[in-house]
Inverse folding.
């Protein structure tokens, strides 16, 4: 059986694309730094409610006079109630006391009485707790990768086992780096959305990989190795391509709709989850179809040449 498209012939191109993207992301992270929310680096966050239109530049100046510089401000609104909110985030080692927030509210009420400011929420996160949460989050991601490796190695032991699992994990790491890159390039602070997106992509991408591996296993039981492993994998990709693309496109259309709604209504917390997730799913489709399989074919070709060399 001859495959319609010879994808494996271009596996060096697939590797190059991934390596260029990874290099760009790591370079951007080194040059610009990695923005982190207070969940990971510590700091303080206060959420204020207000009425009417807000003079944001004036509010920034007033709050900065009381709490100091280096603050970030984010406006938001509740679609259900129409209530407005202003989130003030303070940098890493800085915390804020109840007295300071009372002084801030007094200053705002004096300068912007029509906005009727009120305190909705205040959080202080010490830097040590932020770092601990950050490390635990990465432990969760690492544990998920190890469990996936064990699952793939056991489920597909008849056609590849551990090497198949290793190739899947390498491709998953590529996907995680792409998600990380979205946050770094767009300067979105790493927060709980980042970890949630990472774990979601792990599950989604490995599902695509399992579908591909299942197809390879089925074709091997039908054709054996008479096609050669590279031709077997190429045939499997051609058979799975439309289904995988359609599934990802459908999911991404839904996420794109969520992104548009989030932008229109100023729902930044939803946007900063949906956009990285959408890009991560596109990456997951690419790696499942072309990176995992290309790595596996490259490994099997290396093994074959190695055994031939030993026989000689």
């Amino acid at each position: 059986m001859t495959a319609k498209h010879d994808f494996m012939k271009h596996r060096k191109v697939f590797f190059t694309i991934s390596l260029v993207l990874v290099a760009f992301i790591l370079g951007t992270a080194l040059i610009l730094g990695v923005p982190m929310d207070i969940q990971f680096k510590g700091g303080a966050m206060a959420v204020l409610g207000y009425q009417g239109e807000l003079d944001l530049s004036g509010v920034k100046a007033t709050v900065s006079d009381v709490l100091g510089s280096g603050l970030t401000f984010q406006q938001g609104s509740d679609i259900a109630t129409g209530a407005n909110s202003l989130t003030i985030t303070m940098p890493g080692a800085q915390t804020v006391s109840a007295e300071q927030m009372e002084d801030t509210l007094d200053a705002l009420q004096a300068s912007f009485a029509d906005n009727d400011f009120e305190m909705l929420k205040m959080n202080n996160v010490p830097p040590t707790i932020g770092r601990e949460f950050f490390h635990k989050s990465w432990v969760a991601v690492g544990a998920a990768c190890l469990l996936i490796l064990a699952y793939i190695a056991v489920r597909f032991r008849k056609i590849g086992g551990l090497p198949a699992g290793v190739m899947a994990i390498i491709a998953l790491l590529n996907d995680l780096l792409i998600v990380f890159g979205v946050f770094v390039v767009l300067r979105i602070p790493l927060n709980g959305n980042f970890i949630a997106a990472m774990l979601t992509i792990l599950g989604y991408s490995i599902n695509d990989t399992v579908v591909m591996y299942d197809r390879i296993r089925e074709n091997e039981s039908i054709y054996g190795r008479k096609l050669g492993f590279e031709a077997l994998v190429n045939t499997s990709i051609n058979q799975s391509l439309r289904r995988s693309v359609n599934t990802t496109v459908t999911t991404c259309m839904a996420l794109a709709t969520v992104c548009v709604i989030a932008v229109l209504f100023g729902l930044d917390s939803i946007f900063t989850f949906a956009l990285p997730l959408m890009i991560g799913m596109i990456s997951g489709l690419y790696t499942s179809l072309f990176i995992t399989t290309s790595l596996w074919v490259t490994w099997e070709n290396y093994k074959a040449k190695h055994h031939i060399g030993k026989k000689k």
